[in-house]
Fold:
Amino acid sequence: MKIDPRRMDKVTIFDVSGDIDLANSPEMRKTLLTEMREHKTPRVIVNLTKVRYIDSSGVASLVEGLKTSRDLGLRFILFGLSPAAREVLQLSRLLKIFEVYDDEEHALA
Amino acid sequence: MKKVPSAARPTASAPVRRASAGATDLSLRAPKAGERVALLRLKFASNPQLLGVVRSAVCALSESIGFSPEGSRAVIRSVDEALANVMRHAYGGQRDLPIHLTCWSVASKLPEGAKAALEIVIMDRGIPMPQEKLHAPPPRELRPGGLGLEWMRKSMDVVEHSRKGKTNSLRMLKYAMQAGDPATKEQHS
Structure:
């Protein structure tokens, strides 16, 4: 798993790639939360286009990201969900809780 | 010329079967009615870095015996969540303790519309899952944690935890349906 932040004016996009599982979700969680707390960019976007698999610890990290964004008054957005990622958010009834878009253009609009 | 022993020569009545990793070979070994055939046995350490290796093996196996991509994903996430629970809770994060995983192809008591079934048994020698967690309702509020068991229950047709002596055993079963596999049990009905 790789996670790289792209900082733009009032937006940070995290490009995530690979599988997110127990081995690396703590790294994703730390990167997301640190970025939000330190930079407080008004809009935080997570690009999941290149994520083939995400487990419950990865989803838990996204939930923590969402809760932190609410605490800090930021928007937390996901885009590019693979079928596997969409299924697990549906299983957890979280798909409607997150702000989700198909692609980066719509996430930035 | 090297002489081939007569017992090893192919004959019309007993053709030689060569081992291969392809789907055809697995279908040759598919069980007859009432049979249960072990297709894959893995013994590995409780190191989360190995989860991807196991997911790849289970993915290839489930697709080979006829699961759709949706059904295969349901099997993979259930195995992955079960193993993560063993690593995190049963073994408390220790990375060098043994986990056994066996995948069986099952052809007994298939429900109407099912073409195959995959049974997975995961065994460890760690702390047993607390009963209150096993029977806990799915989390209702927005909070991290507690999702894995719910996903397993929703993704598989059977999920059974047991303990014999010092060994924890998790048995999971999923049917591959003729009309395609739902990603979750709710989509069956």
